[in-house]
C-alpha cells in the first residue's frame, strides 16, 4: 500500500503546475503569435552546415540548410519547422521558390523555419523488385536520414549554444513532393522491419544514418505532408506524431490514393498517397488533417497563389493547437496513451530501475533512454526479459525509455 501511495504521489508531481512550467511548458500563443504575421521582416542565415554523409556514390557530402527567423524576436524557446524540397530525389535545392516562400511566411508568424539540402541522386542499375525500385527507395532513406540529422543538429543547439532559440519539444518535419516522402518517413518509419530487405538499410547507416549528433533524438512533434506518399500506410501506428496532409485529387505525379510514381527517366515505384495515409491515421487514433485540393494536380501550391494560401492556412491552423499542449516531444507524449512495451519499477527509484519486458523481448531491438529535452542519455541492448537499468549518475527527474515503434516506459529517479 505504501508503494501505491508513492506511485500516486509521483503521478501528482508529474501533473503539478510547477513541473509543467519548469520542464513541460507549452508554447505561448497569445497576441496572435503563430496565427497572424506579427513580424514584418525575416532574417535568413544561409548555408548552415548541419551534417556530413556519404552520397549515393560514396563521396562525403557536406549538407547545409537556410534558417529563417523572425527579425527582432525576443522569445527564447520557439517552435521549429524543418522543410525538405521537391525534385524526385534527383533535382531541387533548399532555395527553391516554394521553400523560400513557405519558410518566410511561417517565420513571420513567429516560427523558426529551416529549408534543408539533402542527398540527391540514385543508381538506376541493379535488380528492381516487382513494382518497386531499389534506387528510389534508397534515396528516400538517405533523405530521411538527412532530415533526422537536421533535427538532432537543432536539439544539440538547444541543449548547448542556443543559437537559434529552439524549443526542442516542438520540432516539426515537413516537405513538398519528394520532401514530403522524407517527412513521412521521419515521422512514421521507425523500425528496421518496416524497410524492405532489398533496400539494404544497415549498409546505408540504419534508421538514423551517420550524420552526427547521435546523442540526440530525431523524434518530431508533427508531420507536414504536401503532395507526398509512402510505401505503406501501415507504418503509421497508434501513438505516432500528428499528420497534416495537403494533396491534389488529380495528382498525376504522386497519386492521391495509390499507384506508381516515376516514368520516363525515373524508374517506377508503387506508393500510397494522402487519400490512404490520413484514413489510416484516423483508424489508429493519430490526430490528422487532410486538405483535399479538388481536381488539382501535383504541388499546385508551388505555382498557384490561391492554393499556396490554402496550404499555408491549413498548416497554420493544424499546428497552432499543438503548440498549446504541454509535454515532452509531442510524438512521445501521444504515445503515452498506449501501453508501453515494458514496465519500469520502482517509481520513483534511487539507484536502479528494473525493466520487465514482454515475452517477445528478443524482437524489440535496442532502446534509448531520453530526458525531457529529447536528448539520448543512455542506450540499452536487452540481454534478458528482466533488464536492470542502473542510475549511474543520472540527475533526478523523469526519463522515457523508448523502443522503436512502441510507447515509451516512464522512468523516474529521485
Automatic annotation (TrEMBL):
<dbReference type="InterPro" id="IPR049492">
    <property type="entry name" value="BD-FAE-like_dom"/>
</dbReference>
<keyword id="KW-0732">Signal</keyword>
<feature type="signal peptide">
    <location>
        <begin position="1"/>
        <end position="22"/>
    </location>
</feature>
<dbReference type="Pfam" id="PF20434">
    <property type="entry name" value="BD-FAE"/>
</dbReference>
<dbReference type="InterPro" id="IPR050300">
    <property type="entry name" value="GDXG_lipolytic_enzyme"/>
</dbReference>
<dbReference type="InterPro" id="IPR029058">
    <property type="entry name" value="AB_hydrolase_fold"/>
</dbReference>
<protein>
    <recommendedName>
        <fullName>BD-FAE-like domain-containing protein</fullName>
    </recommendedName>
</protein>
<feature type="domain" description="BD-FAE-like">
    <location>
        <begin position="65"/>
        <end position="231"/>
    </location>
</feature>
<keyword id="KW-0378">Hydrolase</keyword>
